Amino acid sequence: MPYLSPISPGLSWYEDTAGPRPEYPALDGDKQADVVIIGGGFTGLSAAAHLAKAGTNVVLIEAHRFGDGASGRNGGQLGTGQRAWAEELEGEYGFTRAKALFDLAEDAKAHLLEFSATNDIDIDYMPGQMSVAHKPRYVDDYKAHAEIMANRFNYPHITFMDARETAERLGSTHYYGGTRDTGTGHIHPLKLVIGTARVAAAAGAQLFEKTQSTGITSQGGKVRVTTERGTITAQKCLIAVNAYGGKLEPISASHIMPIGSFIGATVPLGADSKVIPGGESVDDSRFVVRYFRKSRDGRLLFGGREIYAVNDPKDIHIHIRKQIAEIYPALKDVEITHGWGGYVGITVPRKPFVREVMPNVISVGGYSGHGVMLSNFFGKLYAETVAGNRDRLKLIEDLKIPPFPGGRRFRAPLLFLALNWFALRDRI
Questions:
Q1: For residues 348 and 366, is the Cβ–Cβ distance under 8 A?
Q2: Which helix (H) or strand (E) holds 353?
Q3: Rounded distance, CA 153 to CA 99, Å?
Q4: Do residues 75 and 51 touch, judged by C-beta distance below 8 A?
Q5: DSSP 97-110
Q6: Of 317, 190, 311, 329, which is closest to residue 262 (Cα–Cα)?
Q7: Closest to 159 in 3D by CA, of 126, 125, 137, 131
Q8: How far is the C-alpha of 75 from the C-alpha of 120, rounded, in Å?
Q9: E-state strands within 192-299
Q10: What residues contact residue 149 under an 8 Å CB cut-off, 6+ apart?
């Protein structure tokens, strides 16, 4: 029987193609550590690997299996920069800080590729990403963005595409123009999860699956994380649960909201397919963004149906096929072999959330759909912080991230209404 995540719906193509997925034991008994990490996704596993390599005694617990949340089930696109365009950050924070945030993201991209290569993790990296406009009025913004990135932020890898070039590179006339970025690419995310866990364990990190935290306290210079079968006492704690925090810690919960995003994988389209002949990944200009790419074996992996509540969706295949057909009418009857979802954490301004939520306890998340490269790097930045250098993590800590309005009772319904309004705007 294929493995089905108990916290994320559907059967993942990544699960079927990742190769051996080692299981780690559950915690049984009390532990002492320098650092305790809650969450076995990209952020937590990366932090564990870097901490352990530096000689830190680290214990990591995951409520289910590593990668069961967004880290092992996402669209696999790296992107460039932060979630917001660099010129948007410049308007909010000024050029110096916007450039620093952009450079940090470029460091994140380089780190992910270097970490994978150095540790022999085959992540199925494929180069190239296109960002495309679903309305004519957005085309000029994409053209200006390419020029700004080259001339102002010293990033020459983005070029503008007119409607004709966009149609040729996509194999579809659905979009009006966009940009092509040759300085980034896309990966198989679950392979990265499995590989990072292997590196962390080999370095001496104590890794535990199927071990849910039941509480966190910080008092007298000690952090205690309780579980059903043991307590971990440490000097410091990293909360790296992102969208899956529930009621674990109230400050994180008020700033990070889970939304569901769902993906379908088709049968291989064949060598003669005109769909994305260059192999790039694609994202579009909708607020409820559609994102798609071809896998190494030629399947179309298509994501785009977002749900702003935590109930499992029904009939993932039907909804995904409908969206595929809008862009590629010839694929309206294509067989979809896998349909799955996961919950990503967003913040109000769609920027990452990093906060010391209690003494010696730092929470990291809210990547807002831009977490593949950022989350792995933020694990490294947390390890730097433990070693005494908080400068780079502080760039993210200082971002303005307000809580969601409405409090615990009303914030989910308010978000549902607001984001569905944005989805309606995408269509008109």
A1: no
A2: strand 353-358
A3: 7
A4: no
A5: HHHHHHHHHHHHHH
A6: 317
A7: 131
A8: 22
A9: 206-208, 213-219, 222-227, 230-239, 257-266, 281-284, 291-294
A10: 86, 155, 156, 158
- What's the rounded Cα separation, in Å, for the pair 185 and 189? 12
What pLDDT band is residue 260 in, cutting at 50, 70 and 90? confident
Write down the pTM of the prediction: 0.95
For tokens 């000029």, what's the residue?
140
How far is residue 372's CA from residue 129's CA, in Å, rounded to a whole number?
14
Task: Read off the pLDDT of each residue in 337-341 and give the average, rounded to a whole number.
Answer: 93
Q: Which two tokens stand for residue 310?
A: 């935590």
Banded pLDDT at 177 (limits 50, 70, 90):
very high
Give the separation between CA 7 and CA 343, rounded to whole angstroms: 9
Q: How far is CA 81 from CA 71, 86, 99, 330, in A?
A: 19, 7, 10, 34
Please state, as a whole number, how many other Cβ atoms lie within 10 Å of the Cβ of residue 346.
27
- Per the structure block, which two tokens stand in for 137? 């009025």
